[in-house]
Design brief:
Elements lengths: L3 H25 L2 H6 L8 H30 L6 H29 L1
Helix pairs in contact: 1-3
Length: 110
């Protein structure tokens, strides 16, 4: 029995293989589009078969770059290391001061 994820993975694999085969056939033998009746002429088919994926990839890279830039522009800067180490040292000293105060209070009660 195939799980839902495995079925979706198999469908994605099948679609990718079919698109890859169609792409390669169209790139090297564009005449099949006329034979099947999808186009009346093969003029510029090979150009567009290359140009469209290159355009999509280029826009995707620009989108990723814009997303990185937006994230960098809207993220606040981190605290300086000196401030972080000071906070850590203060947290270590606070319990010691509380313990000393507790000990003094217990001595006064006795």
């Amino acid at each position: 029995m195939v799980s839902k994820d495995q079925g979706i993975g198999g469908a994605i694999l099948a679609v990718c293989v079919i698109v890859a085969i169609g792409y390669l056939v169209t790139l090297f033998y564009p005449q099949w589009l006329v034979t099947v009746g999808l186009l009346s002429s093969t003029a510029n088919v090979q150009f567009w078969v290359i140009a469209i994926p290159v355009f999509i990839a280029f826009v995707a890279i620009l989108f990723i770059g814009a997303w990185i830039g937006w994230t960098m522009a809207t993220t606040p800067p981190p605290k300086p290391i000196e401030e972080i180490t000071t906070e850590i040292e203060d947290k270590k000293e606070e319990p010691k001061a509380e313990e000393a105060a507790t000990e003094e209070a217990s001595k006064k009660k006795k």
